[in-house]
Design a protein that fits this description.
With 295 residues, the chain is of the alpha+beta class. Helices cover 20% and strands 44% of the residues. The chain contains six helices and 16 strands. It has a four-stranded mixed sheet. Strands 2, 3, 4 and 8 form a four-stranded antiparallel sheet that branches. Strands 13-9-15-14 form a four-stranded mixed sheet.
């Protein structure tokens, strides 16, 4: 009877980092794989170490980037009854915990920091090349990508339509927002448990530096799209917008009150500029004006 091979079980954490149609992958060193193979960033979990902490550490070592890691993960098991490792054969099992992870949208180009490790290169690659097989990847990279679904985020926002004569009060989205440079209604995300009207008063004060009186609900507007959020995470986003009519004092002087927020300008915008397409506005602005003028 053949002697049983020694058993070893390894637990590792990996990050699936996807944005703008690309995936961040690391190339295995020649001592790990004699042929070119690209792998998910990550690695072994030390004894007593939280897997998410281990992943942040590994991504930093292998890519030079600081990552955020999601709360949930998929677990994959690979059993190799006779695997050559560390100069001998083992009855080997790999438990792989794969998290959704992301790096800042403005992160620098990745670079390997660890010396003489298992990673020899790191780069962004088209997701299509992995799916088509054009890029040689490890089985866990291919399997995890096949199972990947974008993070789903539904956000309820409250917005104010404030008109004065032939102008409307609008705010411009800063480079911290998704639609940078576009103009929209003052408002924003509703906090959990917050009254929509109270939330709108708070948002208008933060973005425009003025108090407002909230009137009737004009419209419920929504949009649904997928893309890379300002945080760098790829999201399947659904925004639900409650649009209220609102008024401000006649002598109010709107100005941006919040610092380093998603608003970098506020102004009374002539309606003719919106109608002529001279001012880039989001769809919610046109929807709100249509609802207002229809009443």
């Amino acid at each position: 009877m053949a002697k049983a091979l020694p058993k070893v079980q390894r637990v590792a954490a990996y990050g699936l980092i996807v944005r703008d149609g690309q995936i961040l992958l690391t190339q295995l060193a020649h001592r790990i794989s004699s042929r070119e193979r690209w792998h998910l960033p990550g690695g072994g979990v030390d004894h007593g170490e939280d897997p998410r902490d281990a992943l942040v550490r590994e991504i930093r070592e292998e890519t030079g980037l600081d990552a955020q890691v999601g709360e949930t993960a998929r677990v994959y098991s690979a059993h190799r009854p006779s695997m050559w490792r560390q100069g001998r054969r083992w009855d080997y099992q790999a438990l792989r915990i794969v998290y959704d992870a992301w790096v800042p949208a403005d992160a620098p180009a990745p670079r390997v920091l660890e010396v003489d490790g298992s990673t020899m290169a790191v780069a962004w690659h088209p997701v299509a090349d992995v799916r088509s097989g054009a890029l040689p990847v490890t089985d866990i990279a291919a399997e995890a990508l096949a199972d990947h679904e974008p993070f789903r985020l539904q956000r309820v926002g409250v917005y104010a339509l404030v008109e004065r004569g032939e102008a409307v009060l609008l705010t411009r989205i800063s480079d911290r927002g998704f639609h940078t440079g576009s103009w929209t209604l003052p408002g924003g995300g509703l906090d959990h448990g917050e009254s929509p009207r109270d939330g709108l008063v708070r948002e208008v004060a933060e973005e425009c530096g003025v108090d407002c009186e909230v009137g009737e609900l004009l419209d419920v507007h929504d949009l649904h799209f997928g893309g890379t959020s300002p945080s760098g995470r790829f999201e399947d986003f659904h925004g639900v917008h409650l649009v209220f009519r609102a008024t401000v004092a006649g002598d109010a002087q709107p100005h941006v009150a919040e610092v380093d927020g998603t608003t970098d300008a506020v102004a009374w915008v002539p309606l003719r500029e919106i109608e002529a397409g001279e001012r880039p506005v989001l769809d919610v602005v046109r929807a709100a004006l249509a609802a207002s003028h229809a009443t």
